[in-house]
Write a structure and sequence with these properties.
The complex is a heterotetramer, with 2 copies of chain A (146 residues) and 2 copies of chain B (85 residues). Chain A contains 4 helices and 8 strands. Chain A has 146 residues and is an alpha+beta fold. Chain A has a single domain (2-143), classed as Molybdopterin biosynthesis MoaE subunit (Aldehyde Oxidoreductase, domain 3, Alpha-Beta Complex). Helices cover 28% and strands 25% of the residues of chain B. Chain B has one domain: Ubiquitin-like (UB roll). Classes of the chains: A alpha+beta (146), B alpha+beta (85). Strand 2 (27-34) of chain A pairs antiparallel with strand 2 (27-34) of chain C, so a sheet runs across the interface.
């Protein structure tokens, strides 16, 4: 089962892993991305498109499910304001075999950085805000899956 | 041609609004033409679209190249490269 | 912090993820391997070496920590008898950046299949037991990290 | 040369024990020699070590190639290829 969610609320890892049907599938890989506070960032804001963000995530999830055997796949992205340490994104991919679960997890996190309508804005301790610039390395990793 | 435009991230901030309806002239045939027309239209457009290479486009819910034709389009979103994850 | 455990007791995912210090590290990748019951397997038994199994896992964990930035790494392998659906192995790897957490997770699960003293024996519905044969594909994946 | 041997998985089952102390003759210089000597020693050895290429070796806690010398060794573990994970 494929489950894709875009949400304002905090992502609860335990709730989502319980809900993700990992049961009899042999291998489950997960990825959690969190807000890092190491550059003096006090808040991260994720702007999204009311329809296209969720659709973009769903397209990626189905692309992964076409490419690998993934009887269970969960992809949750938070939007809005969040604090350092909070979860931005969660991927859970289950498969009969480890290589597929791990590859799907890596593919999804790589591609959602370049393919989905989401924009990060950081607020620093002095109140200044800046939009995060895309990184060339992210672009190259995402293209590596083409 | 009436178009419903949506702006995101710093494009939205520089335009001072998230959406607007526009009626570009007939020679605005592609997304790139639209970006150039908005940049020339007023100061906020000049600020938002000073670097067309940094602008991405979605037409009627599909991400497109900036050379995509606008014929038949209703909704056009203009935004910086995405930075999710 | 590196934490390596070999245990007879069931592996509790929620307990281990809470204990793993994922806090401020940006990216956490995990891998869970479970007993699959799909070939009529009713029980899996993991034989181990009283000292060398844990040492082998610890060596792998330190090799990963030398290769990537991993402020938090957890590697837990169960031994003894377990039923289909139960967790055999859990890897949690946290890093400032996703590529390192995901690569470490993949490296550890690939290499522990070929480098650590552990042997699987399957019991089938008719009571017959068989030792699992190593797979050439596992050997090749493990060598890919050399 | 007294050696403490440990067997695992189907090697242990075929040998009928998990460990034993042995005193191989002086011409048993390497792990391969030890495997051949055990295979020739009795029926259980013949069963456990019929295919020397399927036997792996650890000497004093270190995984070694089967051509490793036994000089100075105390503990030798003999076992099939591992299958963890």
């Amino acid at each position: 089962m494929i489950r894709v969610v875009v949400q304002d609320a905090a992502i609860d890892f335990a709730t989502e892993t319980d809900r993700h049907d990992a049961g009899g599938h042999g291998a489950t890989a997960s990825f959690v991305g969190r807000v890092r506070g190491d550059d003096g960032v006090t808040q991260l804001f994720l702007e999204h498109h009311p329809q296209m963000t969720e659709r973009g995530l769903a397209d990626l999830a189905h692309a992964a499910a076409d490419r690998w055997r993934l009887p269970a796949l969960t992809l949750i992205h938070r939007v809005g304001a969040m604090a350092p340490g909070e979860t931005i994104v969660l991927v859970l991919a289950s498969s009969p075999h480890r290589a597929e679960a791990l590859a799907a997890c890596t593919f999804l996190i790589d591609r959602l950085k370049t393919d989905v309508m989401l924009w990060k804005r950081e607020t620093l301790a002095d109140g200044a805000a800046r939009w995060v610039e895309p990184r060339t390395a992210d672009q190259e990793r995402a293209e590596g899956w083409d | 041609m009436a178009l419903q435009l949506a702006y995101f991230a710093w494009v939205r901030e520089r335009m001072g609004c998230g959406e607007e309806q526009v009626e570009p002239p007939a020679d605005v045939a592609t997304a790139s033409d639209l970006i150039a027309w908005l940049a020339a239209r007023d100061d906020r457009g000049a600020r938002a679209f000073a670097e067309p290479a940094r602008i991405r486009v979605a037409i009627d819910g599909q991400m497109m190249g900036n050379d995509a034709a606008l014929a038949g389009a209703r909704d056009v979103a203009l935004f910086p490269p995405v930075t999710g994850g």
